[in-house]
Amino acid sequence: MQKKLILISGSPCVGKTAVGTWLFERYDNSAYLDGDWCWCVHPFSTADSRLRNGDRGMSFLLSNYLDSDFEYVFFTSVVLTDPGIREGILNGITARDYTTIGFTLTCSPETLKKRHDRRGDRGETNLYWLSLPPCPGDVVVDTDGKSVREIVKEMKRTIDAFPAQNG
Fold first, then answer.
1. 107-135, pLDDT tens digit by residue?
2. For 29, which DSSP code?
3. Residue 166 confidence (pLDDT)
4. CB atoms within 10 A of CB 78
5. Is the peptide bond before 43 cis (omega within 30 degrees of 0)?
6. Does the residue 167 lie in any domain?
7. Which of 138, 141, 143 is nearest to 162 (CA)?
8. What is the CATH number of the domain that holds 84?
9. Which of 76, 87, 16, 17 is nearest to 52 (CA)?
């Protein structure tokens, strides 16, 4: 069995949690981690050095899932958009023999604003995360005008076709 670690990154309100949950529910022998649970602090800033503890927590949980022989491990987080933070989390994984597949979800600023408003968030929509380039090697999925079901179907084709390699 070749285990797959599926990373889903992107701006807040782009659909990471919805898509990650739907994917998780469609794969048997799978586990799911919403990395934002490990970074639930106020105020939130990626520059806060204390959050490296959250990174280590994510690495630990992902290692446990992979070492527990889950075939699919889905990991969603806004922090995966930062290449340095992503690299630190991945380098902290002690598990072996898995393949990593990265996705970056994106949408237009107008769509992000609508989703932000629909979620009931206060304040202006932060377009910073949306403006970041995808991490090298990520499959970019534009979520504009697509239902969660359509996005999941698109991503599932990529996951199922992804060649096995050791991680």
1. 999 999 998 888 877 767 778 888 899 99
2. S
3. 45
4. 20
5. yes
6. no
7. 138
8. 3.40.50.300
9. 87
